[in-house]
């Protein structure tokens, strides 16, 4: 018997305005990324 399809949870980063998977590995990868770091620097300058 096949398994029922289940949607993966997503998390929204309000700093970068992007979505990514809601798991520890994806959160860490996103927060250490250049796009996120640049967005934080931009928001602190404003």
Task: Write out key terms for the chains shown.
single chain, 46 residues, alpha+beta, two-stranded antiparallel ribbon, 2 strands
Characterize the structure shown.
This protein has 46 residues and is of the alpha+beta class. The protein has one domain. Helices cover 43% and strands 17% of the residues. Strands 1-2 form a two-stranded antiparallel sheet. A hairpin with a 4-residue loop joins strand 1 and strand 2. The longest helix has 12 residues. The radius of gyration is 14 Å and the shape is elongated. The model has no long low-confidence stretch (mean pLDDT 93).
Counting H and I runs of at least 4 residues, what is the number of helices?
2
Report the principal-axis shape.
Answer: elongated
Q: Please give the radius of gyration in angstroms.
A: 14 Å
Percent of residues in helical segments? 40-55%
Tell me the domain tally. Answer: 1
Structural class: alpha+beta
N-C termini distance = 55 Å
Summarize the structure.
This protein is of the alpha+beta class and 46 residues long. Helices cover 43% and strands 17% of the residues.
Q: Which helices and strands, and how do they pair?
A:
Elements: E1 10-13, E2 18-21, H1 24-31, H2 34-45
Antiparallel strand pairs: 1-2
